[in-house]
Structure formats: structure tokens, C-alpha cells
């Protein structure tokens, strides 16, 4: 059995977490600090938190022996996911009793027991907290009680919107899919259908006899309104026939439509911006060769041709990214096959731009087991990760590519010594078109598609990719794939 809980250390560390929140910190940094405090106090060898949404889960924070799982997705129909979301809220689970891929991966890392508790808000699961233990000794009830308490603390962070998203669809039991309300002359709600509760998150008890949680448009008009939680509603209103002055209001969530419109506008803006630079350079050098061929030296002509070729290659890579993003291209349904990961990485390096090849340091073991996946796509993955590392680090600093085996998985890492990545950005960096803050966008140009494509390609091969700050400065990008 694990050692008794170090309650003084747990309370002291938890005080630090609360002080972080009181000082304005939020989201992943606070969550990760909570796990770092809990792991030694609980006598665990690793801690992890899985965030759940409508389409499944993902490990968004992990420490110790569980750190390898950072970024790992859990499909909604995975047997392990089904098991974790059912049964008692807090319990001890023998890893060998799980039936999905996660069990094999945990066993391969010599983890035999987990104490798990769901983080719930009003009966809705936003995530699950895990304390992991090696050996055959079963954790005690004290560990279970503390993990349940910490999971409740995490749920409270979600409820307070402390920088963490809250997922969930909620039940749709109304005959109307749209929210429906009736308000009186004072703007107070007299009728609130179940769909309205689902769309706004306000129950009938919270809404009745109170003002609407959004502005009321004039009768017969339509208004799009952004809610405090970031969602968009499309609202219409009209006079209700009959005695009295009543107004009927209908509304629905148009967040996805707004996001599609935003993505379309951003796609056009980013594409035009990113295409302009190489096209301008190519045209400039081509015009120079055409107009001044006779007056240019042979060296000048070769240099102009070299620049045109380099910029054309950049243009081709950018077009590939844009087309892949728009067409959702990737390995798709092609069956996974075994391939030599070390040899594939060495071959992919040959096709990298010369300035990246010069900086690359390959540290690959000769006895690396074969990976199971789609070998041709590895070149795209390595190109995007090394390009990203090169962009955010000094031109003369090395970029290391290392690889290792970890239980049922084989992994490779691309590490740089650049500006690093903030903990709260490690997940957002994989969003399409996301490039960090405006200052980053000005200093580090790019379309914001590389990491988005990498994650989709890797996850289509039943693997996952994650980012983390590198000790001593810089960033580590890690790709994990199933091994043969």
C-alpha cells in the first residue's frame, strides 16, 4: 500500500495554488501546479487530468510518470473512456481491469493502479483526475478521498471559468430546437422553454420573472449577440397577438456559424498575406533577370535563380498546407503499416531546407522498434515541427531530434532553445490559424497551419502530439505512435 498521505505538504501546496488564483493566475498553469502538489503528498508516481467534451477527452495536464500521456486523446466510444465515465464518481481501479489501449500503455509504463475521480458540475462531467501507482499494493481510502476532493476543486475552477473551457451539450427535451421566451412589458420573462435553458444555461427557475440574459431586439428585427462565455446567439422578437403587451422571443446558438465565417475571413486574410511575400520576391528577381540580363554578372544571375528557387519552394510548401487544411487531407483510411521510425526520420531530414538541415542534431538509437502508422506522412510532420522550432529560435542555435521507446509506444521529440511556449498556450497552439498574441504574430510570420496539420495527421495514426516548455528554455514537441 502507498505511504500515508503527507497532509501538511498537501495543505501547504494547496495554499500556494489558492494564492496563484487570488493573484490572477488561471487555467492550465494552476491545474498543473495542483497536480505537482498532489503527486508527492499522495505518494503517487504520476498525476493526470483528462478534460472531457462532447466528442471525447484529452489529457491536458500530467506530471511525473504520467507526463508521457500529455496530449493523448480518448475517444468517446473507447472502452476505457466508457469505464471512467460510468460507476462511482471516485474509486480505485486496477489498470489490468481496463480493456482499451490506455490499459496497455499504462502497463507498459509499469503503472498498475489508479485512483480516479470525476470532476462534475451539476452532474455533468468536465473531466477526471487520476493518481497513478506502480506495484500490486492497492491504494487506500485516504487516497481516494483526497483525489475526490481535488477533483471537486478542479470542477470549481471550471465553474468559475478560471481559464478552462467547460464542455457539454445538455439535454434537448423541448419540442422546439430553438429557445423560446415570452416577456412582458417590463422585459421580465413569463415563459421559458427547455430549449431556452439548454441554449443559455439558465434553468426556468433562474429565468422566470427576471430580465432576459441578452438584449431584446425591436419587434420584427434580428440581432446577433455575443454572450459573456463567448457563444453567439441569433435573436428575433415579435409582438404576441392578444390582450396585454407581450413579446415572443426566439433564439438559437450560432457559434459554429460565426466560427466558420471567422475562419473563412481569416483564411482569405492569411492566404493573401503569406502568398504576397514569396510572389513579390519571385517577380522582383524575375524582372531583374529579364530587364538586366546583359548587365548582370554570372554570379548575380545564379544568385537570382537561387533565390527564385528558394522562394518557389516556400510557396509550394505554403500552398500544400493551405490545400491540406481546406481539404482535410491526411492518411485517411489507409491501413497502418510497420515502418522503421529511425530510418524514416533520417530520410525526411534530407528534404528539409538547407538552413534547417545545418542546425539539426539527430540523436536516434539504432535499436529503435518499428512504429505502426503511415510512413509517407512522417516527412510532413517532421518538416512542420522543425520549421516551427527554427522560426522561434535563434538562427545559429541547434534543433535536436531524439527518439525513444516507452512501453507500447515509440516517440520522437523535436527540441529547440528558443523563446519557449507558455503553459496556457500548449493546447491552443494546435488550433487552425492560431499564432499566439499579436506581438508574436508580428515578429514571427506564418499561416498558423503547421501544428494543426501535425496533430490531425498523427491522431489519424492512433498517436498523439504534445508541446511543453523545455527545461532551460525553448520548446519540446513530442510525437507518440503505436509500436509493433
UniProtKB/TrEMBL annotation:
<keyword id="KW-0067">ATP-binding</keyword>
<feature type="domain" description="Histidine kinase">
    <location>
        <begin position="270"/>
        <end position="484"/>
    </location>
</feature>
<dbReference type="GO" id="GO:0000156">
    <property type="term" value="F:phosphorelay response regulator activity"/>
</dbReference>
<dbReference type="InterPro" id="IPR003661">
    <property type="entry name" value="HisK_dim/P_dom"/>
</dbReference>
<feature type="domain" description="PAS">
    <location>
        <begin position="172"/>
        <end position="210"/>
    </location>
</feature>
<dbReference type="GO" id="GO:0000155">
    <property type="term" value="F:phosphorelay sensor kinase activity"/>
</dbReference>
<keyword id="KW-0418">Kinase</keyword>
<dbReference type="GO" id="GO:0030295">
    <property type="term" value="F:protein kinase activator activity"/>
</dbReference>
<keyword id="KW-0808">Transferase</keyword>
<protein>
    <recommendedName>
        <fullName>Sensor-like histidine kinase SenX3</fullName>
        <ecNumber>2.7.13.3</ecNumber>
    </recommendedName>
</protein>
<dbReference type="GO" id="GO:0005524">
    <property type="term" value="F:ATP binding"/>
</dbReference>
<dbReference type="GO" id="GO:0007234">
    <property type="term" value="P:osmosensory signaling via phosphorelay pathway"/>
</dbReference>
<dbReference type="InterPro" id="IPR013656">
    <property type="entry name" value="PAS_4"/>
</dbReference>
<dbReference type="InterPro" id="IPR050351">
    <property type="entry name" value="BphY/WalK/GraS-like"/>
</dbReference>
<dbReference type="InterPro" id="IPR003594">
    <property type="entry name" value="HATPase_dom"/>
</dbReference>
<dbReference type="Pfam" id="PF08448">
    <property type="entry name" value="PAS_4"/>
</dbReference>
<dbReference type="Pfam" id="PF02518">
    <property type="entry name" value="HATPase_c"/>
</dbReference>
<dbReference type="InterPro" id="IPR036097">
    <property type="entry name" value="HisK_dim/P_sf"/>
</dbReference>
<dbReference type="InterPro" id="IPR000014">
    <property type="entry name" value="PAS"/>
</dbReference>
<keyword id="KW-0902">Two-component regulatory system</keyword>
<keyword id="KW-1133">Transmembrane helix</keyword>
<dbReference type="InterPro" id="IPR035965">
    <property type="entry name" value="PAS-like_dom_sf"/>
</dbReference>
<keyword id="KW-0547">Nucleotide-binding</keyword>
<keyword id="KW-0472">Membrane</keyword>
<dbReference type="GO" id="GO:0005886">
    <property type="term" value="C:plasma membrane"/>
</dbReference>
<keyword id="KW-0597">Phosphoprotein</keyword>
<dbReference type="Pfam" id="PF00512">
    <property type="entry name" value="HisKA"/>
</dbReference>
<dbReference type="InterPro" id="IPR036890">
    <property type="entry name" value="HATPase_C_sf"/>
</dbReference>
<dbReference type="InterPro" id="IPR005467">
    <property type="entry name" value="His_kinase_dom"/>
</dbReference>
<dbReference type="InterPro" id="IPR004358">
    <property type="entry name" value="Sig_transdc_His_kin-like_C"/>
</dbReference>
<keyword id="KW-0812">Transmembrane</keyword>
Amino acid at each position: 500500500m502507498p505511504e500515508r498521505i503527507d497532509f501538511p505538504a498537501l495543505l501547504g501546496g494547496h495554499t500556494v495554488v489558492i494564492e496563484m488564483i487570488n493573484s490572477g493566475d488561471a487555467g492550465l498553469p494552476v491545474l498543473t501546479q495542483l497536480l505537482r502538489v498532489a503527486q508527492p503528498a499522495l505518494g503517487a508516481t504520476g498525476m493526470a487530468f483528462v478534460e472531457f467534451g462532447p466528442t471525447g477527452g484529452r489529457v491536458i495536464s500530467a506530471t511525473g510518470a504520467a507526463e508521457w500521456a500529455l496530449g493523448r486523446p480518448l475517444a468517446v466510444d473507447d472502452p476505457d473512456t466508457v469505464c471512467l465515465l460510468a460507476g462511482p464518481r471516485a474509486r480505485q481501479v486496477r489498470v489490468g481491469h481496463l480493456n482499451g489501449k490506455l490499459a496497455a500503455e499504462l502497463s507498459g509504463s509499469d503503472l498498475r493502479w489508479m485512483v480516479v475521480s470525476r470532476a462534475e458540475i451539476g452532474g455533468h462531467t468536465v473531466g477526471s483526475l487520476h493518481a497513478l501507482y506502480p506495484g500490486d499494493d492497492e491504494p487506500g481510502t485516504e487516497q481516494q478521498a483526497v483525489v475526490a476532493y481535488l477533483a471537486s476543486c478542479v470542477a470549481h475552477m471550471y465553474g468559475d471559468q478560471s481559464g478552462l473551457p467547460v464542455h457539454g451539450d445538455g439535454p434537448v427535451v423541448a419540442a422546439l430546437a430553438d429557445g423560446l421566451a415570452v416577456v412582458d412589458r417590463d422585459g421580465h420573462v413569463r415563459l421559458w422553454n427547455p430549449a431556452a435553458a439548454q441554449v443559455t444555461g439558465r434553468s426556468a427557475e433562474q429565468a422566470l420573472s427576471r430580465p432576459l440574459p441578452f438584449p431584446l431586439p425591436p419587434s420584427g428585427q434580428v440581432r446577433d449577440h455575443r454572450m459573456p462565455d463567448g457563444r453567439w446567439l441569433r435573436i428575433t422578437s415579435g409582438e404576441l397577438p392578444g390582450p396585454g403587451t407581450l413579446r415572443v422571443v426566439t433564439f438559437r446558438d450560432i457559434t459554429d456559424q460565426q466560427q466558420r465565417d471567422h475562419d473563412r475571413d481569416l483564411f482569405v486574410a492569411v492566404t493573401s498575406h503569406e502568398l504576397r511575400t514569396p510572389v513579390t520576391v519571385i517577380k522582383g528577381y524575375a524582372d531583374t533577370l529579364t530587364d538586366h540580363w546583359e548587365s548582370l554578372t554570372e554570379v548575380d544571375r545564379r544568385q537570382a535563380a537561387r533565390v527564385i528557387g528558394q522562394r518557389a519552394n516556400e510557396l509550394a510548401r505554403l500552398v500544400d498546407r493551405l490545400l491540406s487544411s481546406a481539404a482535410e487531407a491526411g492518411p485517411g483510411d489507409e491501413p497502418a503499416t510497420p515502418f522503421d521510425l529511425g530510418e524514416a526520420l533520417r530520410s525526411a531530414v534530407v528534404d528539409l531546407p538547407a538552413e534547417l538541415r545545418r542546425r539539426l542534431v539527430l540523436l536516434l538509437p539504432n535499436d529503435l522498434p518499428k512504429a505502426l502508422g503511415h510512413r509517407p506522412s512522417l516527412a510532413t510532420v517532421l518538416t512542420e515541427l522543425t520549421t516551427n522550432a527554427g522560426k522561434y529560435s535563434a538562427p545559429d542555435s541547434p534543433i535536436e531530434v531524439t527518439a525513444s521507446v516507452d512501453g507500447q509506444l515509440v516517440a520522437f521529440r523535436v527540441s529547440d532553445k528558443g523563446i519557449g511556449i507558455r503553459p496556457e498556450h500548449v493546447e491552443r497552439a494546435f488550433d487552425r490559424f492560431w499564432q499566439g498574441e499579436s506581438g508574436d504574430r508580428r515578429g514571427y510570420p506564418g499561416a498558423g497551419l503547421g501544428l494543426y496539420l501535425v496533430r490531425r495527421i498523427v491522431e489519424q495514426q492512433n498517436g498523439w502530439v504534445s508541446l511543453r516548455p523545455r527545461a532551460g528554455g525553448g520548446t519540446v514537441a513530442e510525437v507518440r505512435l503505436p509500436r509493433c
